[in-house]
Design goal:
13 strands; eight-stranded parallel beta barrel; five-stranded antiparallel β-sheet; alpha/beta; disordered N terminus
């Protein structure tokens, strides 16, 4: 039956909401694996958390991120141990759970069978024999099929990353290949190939999820000149996207001063900005970090908490920054058979639940870190309407959480259009 509209209020709101709607949360891609392996999560009072999503919601989080690999069975055993396991079936189930719990969902396409990042963008094994034109068709078909299945599963994403940390392009070739990398000095053919892939991925997103916001993801915070060049090329080549996504890990990318330089540059492009990955150690900082900032933020639970406070204070000075996501917030060792399930604790001690195998932090296994309680401050003060002049009749639809739609939303709920509150039944 065709959805009908019930007008609840006809009076215009006559209000300009100056504060942006902000999204705060994290990447929880391994949560089902941890739960299936018997991990215990505990709150600050050492009581067991039996409903993790409900707990995160109560802590003020409102958005969660999940990565998607093409065929993670092709990953090496080490990569699987490091958390490469999120195929479409896995992501549909977790995505529906996230949406049912009342969170917005960010879907992170890796377009690889394993980790995609600045050091490697490995073409999926099943796609390696495809020429450039066929690969464009494949990324379109794959993206469209995944999104259609997500929608049918009740896991429609609100934000879609068309690639993960793609500062230097995507799908370079097989393992070890750098043939199709996109550096500032790379041949135009490499860049044109990259842009063609991005356009086909974005086309599929617009067709299946027209209300979702497309994110382009870079981690070039420490090299602002490279970030500028990358964003300039997106403009010059008419890449269709909505949000600039940045990774910011201070131990790799530098101080908050360096982050601000990158934000100042990104703000020149008229897009919203999201920190789609961040984190900081509370124990055992590796020896090979690029920047040792432990004199500013000690490698302790309190130091991690202070980092979260300082980061949020900095981001709230930048109105275009609308999202903050902590990476791998669910890492926890308690009760987990990591060899068959998840990453060993020594790999990453920057989660928001205690992941160490000694008592040096003073926190029990699986207990929430104090930094988690700081994250809600990022969303505080946001209006729920994203800088919308609701007296202006532009035909746009807006959710009460501030998201703008180009067409009538399909989800049941209360919206604002042409200065009126309208209920989609």
């Amino acid at each position: 039956m065709k959805k009908q509209l019930l007008t609840i209020a006809l009076a215009t709101l006559g209000l300009l909401c100056e504060a942006q709607q902000r999204y705060v949360g994290g990447d929880i891609s391994l949560l089902p694996s941890y739960e299936a392996s018997g991990a215990w999560y505990m709150d600050a009072d050492n009581e067991r958390i039996t409903d993790m999503l409900g707990y995160l919601k109560a802590q003020g989080l409102n958005s969660l991120r999940v990565r998607l690999f093409v065929d993670p069975t092709q990953a090496t055993q080490d990569e699987k141990n490091q958390g490469v396991r999120q195929d479409l079936a896995y992501v549909k189930t977790l995505g529906k759970r996230i949406k049912d719990a009342g969170f917005s969902l960010m879907l992170d396409f890796h377009y690889s069978d394993t980790w995609a990042d600045p050091k490697q963008q490995i073409t999926p094994a099943a796609w390696l024999s495809l020429g450039d034109a066929a690969l464009q068709t494949k990324i379109y078909d794959y993206t469209k099929d995944c999104l259609q299945q997500m929608v049918e599963a009740g896991a429609t994403p609100d934000f879609i990353q068309t690639g993960n940390e793609i500062s230097y392009g995507m799908m370079w070739g097989g393992r070890g290949s750098t043939q199709n990398q996109c550096f500032t000095t790379s041949a135009a053919a490499n860049w044109n190939r990259f842009f063609a892939l991005l356009k086909k991925a974005g086309q599929a997103c617009r067709e299946v999820c027209p209300q979702a916001k497309i994110i382009l993801h870079s981690e070039r915070v420490p090299r602002v000149n490279v970030l500028k060049d990358w964003l300039d090329r997106m403009v010059a080549n008419s890449i269709d996207y909505d949000i600039i996504g940045l990774s910011y890990y201070p131990y790799h990318h530098g101080s908050l001063t360096q982050l601000e330089l990158a934000l100042n540059q990104a703000e020149n492009y008229g897009k919203d900005i999201m920190i789609v990955e961040t984190g900081y150690y509370y124990a055992w900082q590796p020896n090979d970090v690029t920047n040792d900032l432990s004199s500013t933020w000690p490698i302790t639970p309190a130091g991690q908490q202070q980092f979260a406070k300082d980061l949020i204070a900095k981001l709230k000075n930048h109105p275009k920054v609308t999202g903050l996501y902590w990476w791998f917030l669910e890492a926890c060792e308690n009760g987990v058979d990591w060899q068959s399930a998840v990453t060993p604790s020594g790999w990453y001690n920057a989660s928001l639940f205690n992941d160490t195998n000694t008592s040096e932090t003073g926190w029990g296994y699986g207990q929430v870190m104090p930094a988690l309680a700081e994250l809600k401050a990022f969303a505080e003060g946001s209006s729920g309407i994203s800088q919308v002049k609701v007296t202006h009749r532009d035909g746009r639809w807006y959710s009460l959480q501030g998201m703008r739609y180009d067409a009538q939303p399909q989800r049941r709920g209360l919206y604002i259009v042409d200065g009126k509150k309208v209920f989609v039944k």
